[in-house]
Amino acid sequence: MTPSPSHALPAVDTGLAWNNRFAALGPAFYTRLEPRPLPTPHTVAHSPDAAALLGLDADWLHSDAALQIFSGNALPQGSDPLASVYSGHQFGVWAGQLGDGRALLLGEVQTPQGPQEIQLKGSGLTPYSRMGDGRAVLRSSIREFLCSEAMHALGIPTTRALYLCGSPEPVQREAVETAAVVTRVAPSFIRFGHFEHFAARGQFGELQQLADYVVERFYPECQDGADCGGHAGNRYAALLQAVSERSAALVAQWQAVGFCHGVLNTDNMSILGLTIDYGPFQFLDHFDPGHICNHSDHQGRYAYGQQPGVVLWNLYRLGQALQPLIGDPTIAMGALESYRTLYPQHFMQRMRAKLGLDAAHEGDSTHIDAILHLLADNAVDYPIFWRRLSRAVGSGDFDPVRDLCADRAGWDRWMLSFSEHVALTNRALDANLMLKNNPHIVLRNHLAQQCIEAAQAGEFSTLQALQTALQMPFDEHPAHEAYAGFPPDWAAHLSISCSS
Ligand code: AMP
Ligand code: MG
């Protein structure tokens, strides 16, 4: 390790090629600063898959240099750390300036798969920390680490997690916990709230600079507007439409898999259509459209069934922010309309795949609605239902699925009517398609909780074993069966809040 010329922290050569393009936007967008070192850090977990994405040698992740960097005790040579500023709407209300209150963008690296940014979360106070302490606790960091990589393995767009380290440093939440840092990776961490920030302040030059940066870097097809929703010459309308389209595809995946984000504020909405900022998220146990996973969400604004609507609300806030660049409000409205059309299409396509149908036919939605009603009325376990149904289509034995419904007659009626619909439309259910679309293992709250309690007691192998299983969520492996069962009774009493 050598001292870095412009930084107090030592610099380490990682072999990564840094090209910090967000930093090149200029000081209106961020504050340059170094991480606050996490004292006496230790490694909790890392993701070899995320390392491969960066072209990093997985062995290097075991080195002390890696631990020093990812705990904020050293800087990668070539990085240019900064905390970015953004604003946002929280729980439907304008919250004003927020920003990276405990995250720090180390910079952007070139990888074989294109540029990726590397960010520390939990790395200490920044000018945007407001009342916070700049830290993250081990409990919520484990949830973010595991879920980021689990979502990726499910094929759902997400920020990635490269590294998780802990420390004995005490952090006060409801109780005293200990500090941790998650290293996240994504092509960009820009949120809807970054645009809202400059729009709200009337800083239209910076707003345009940001929009141009996003279009040129991540939506090149929107550059002249023509190929993007027919917004010829209006790249900002084209951008709004493209973000709406990506968001529609993303939410359809959440709904189909039974993922509840928990805090869909505009500052937690990625401009790239990635799942970002894992807090009180939950994969549904029993199916309940009204399920609220965030204990702090008293009104149920972010209940599972509200997500498609609330993401559209968030897109309207983005549209409002882009309005000065787009010009004509009717053009902005038109760009947002694509969400209303595309979300149901994406959702139906995902649900058809879960049902083993590779082609669409009129009337499918009636049967999809009916089965979801049956699951809700019978409080059927959502992941187990779909997995058992996939197996039943392969084996012909539907009893294990029927057994899940207290209303057996209701199940029989649905099954008969659905089977007739499939036969009448000259289709057959594809069991393999179902097995690839109905995961055997998802990161249920109780599984995360078991890892958290073990890790808090200094034992990390529980977490690492679950991490391995979550990398192959569609496979049935004897060693992973314990993760595929019904949740224990105590899982219903877990209370997950915004506290992190
Ligand atoms: P979140 O609810 O986690 O999306 O956070 C909302 C805002 O609060 C973001 O700007 C975060 O950076 C900030 N924040 C959350 N927790 C902390 C903390 N412990 N210290 C400083 N800032 C925080
Ligand atoms: Mg956030």
- The residue fraction in helices comes out at 40-55%
Ligands (ions, cofactors included): adenosine monophosphate, magnesium ion
Give the N-to-C terminal Cα separation: 32 Å
Reported for the largest beta sheet, the result is: 7 strands, antiparallel
Gyration radius (Cα, Å) is 23 Å
| Total beta-strand segments | 16
Total of helices? 15
Mean of residue pLDDT?
96
Strand content: 5-15%
Structural class: alpha+beta
Q: pLDDT below 50 for ≥5 consecutive residues: which ranges?
A: none
- How many structurally independent domains? 3
Shape: globular
List the helices and strands and how they pair.
Layout: E1 2-3, E2 10-12, E3 17-18, E4 30-32, E5 42-46, H1 48-54, H2 64-70, E6 75-76, E7 82-84, E8 87-90, E9 93-97, E10 103-110, E11 116-121, E12 136-137, H3 138-153, E13 160-172, E14 176-186, H4 192-200, H5 204-218, H6 235-257, E15 259-260, E16 282-283, H7 307-326, H8 329-354, H9 364-377, H10 382-395, H11 399-402, H12 408-424, H13 431-437, H14 445-456, H15 461-470
Parallel strand pairs: 2-6
Antiparallel strand pairs: 1-2, 3-10, 4-7, 5-13, 8-9, 10-11, 11-14, 12-14, 13-14, 15-16
The structure holds adenosine monophosphate and magnesium ion.
Structure commentary:
The protein is of the alpha+beta class and 500 residues long. It folds into 3 domains: 11-189, no CATH class; 220-352, no CATH class; 362-437, no CATH class. It has helices spanning 48-54, 64-70, 138-153, 192-200, 204-218, 235-257, 307-326, 329-354, 364-377, 382-395, 399-402, 408-424, 431-437, 445-456, 461-470, and strands at 2-3, 10-12, 17-18, 30-32, 42-46, 75-76, 82-84, 87-90, 93-97, 103-110, 116-121, 136-137, 160-172, 176-186, 259-260, 282-283. The strands form 5 sheets. Strands 3, 5, 10, 11, 12, 13 and 14 form a 7-stranded antiparallel sheet that branches. Strands 1-2-6 form a 3-stranded mixed sheet, with helices on one face. Strands 4-7 form a two-stranded antiparallel ribbon. Strand 13 and strand 14 form a beta hairpin. Helix 6 runs parallel beside helix 8 and helix 9 runs antiparallel to helix 12 (408-424). The structure holds adenosine monophosphate (AMP) and magnesium ion (MG). The site of magnesium ion has 3 residues, from loops. Adenosine monophosphate binds at residues 98-102, 128-129, 132-135, 263, 267-268, 277, 279, 498.
